[in-house]
Design goal:
Helix content is about 10%, strand content about 30%. It starts with a helix and ends with a strand. The chain contains one helix and ten strands; from the N terminus they run αββββββββββ. The chain has one domain. The strands form two sheets. The chain has a six-stranded antiparallel beta sheet with strand order 4-3-6-10-8-9, with no helix packed on it. Strands 1, 2, 5 and 7 form a four-stranded antiparallel beta sheet that branches. Strand 1 and strand 2 form a beta hairpin. With about 140 residues, it is mainly beta.
Length: about 140
């Protein structure tokens, strides 16, 4: 009887432990890479708005030589239209566009001056000289 119980216990242990070890399971699966940032451009009738400081939820920077800025979809981005030291002044109309110069319409924004709205069909928006505007991308 003792042998029978011993053999039954040994068989049970073999069945239970047969699923362990062997390396058949999956290993570490790295998380997917973060999405690539998007780029839009802040331009004016006289050319790109270069060097405009901006602050997005995902980071800060200044617009590049083409007026480009990086963001992630869903970010809010604020643009200081006078620069950090108040030396940038825009007298022309500003707009937001894609790399192919197609305006980006329908972006909600509000400015420190109290102006609010959405960018028009060509990406233009209303702002005051010496303003700071936040766009909800």
């Amino acid at each position: 009887m003792k042998k029978l119980l011993f053999l039954a216990g040994l068989a049970s242990a073999a069945v239970i432990l047969s699923g362990c070890g062997g390396g058949g399971g999956g290993g570490y699966v790295p998380p997917p890479p973060p999405p690539a940032p998007s780029i839009l451009y802040l331009d004016g009738d006289m050319g790109p708005a270069v060097g405009v400081p901006y602050l997005c939820d995902s980071g800060t920077g200044v617009t590049d030589p083409d007026g480009g800025f990086l963001f992630y979809p869903g970010d809010s981005c604020s643009f200081d239209l006078t620069g950090y030291d108040g030396t940038i002044f825009f007298t022309d109309n500003l707009y937001i566009d894609y790399a192919d110069n197609t305006g980006v319409s329908g972006i909600s924004y509000d400015c420190f001056s109290g102006l609010t709205g959405v960018t028009d069909l060509n990406g233009y928006f209303d702002y005051d000289v010496d303003d700071e505007c936040t766009f909800y991308l």
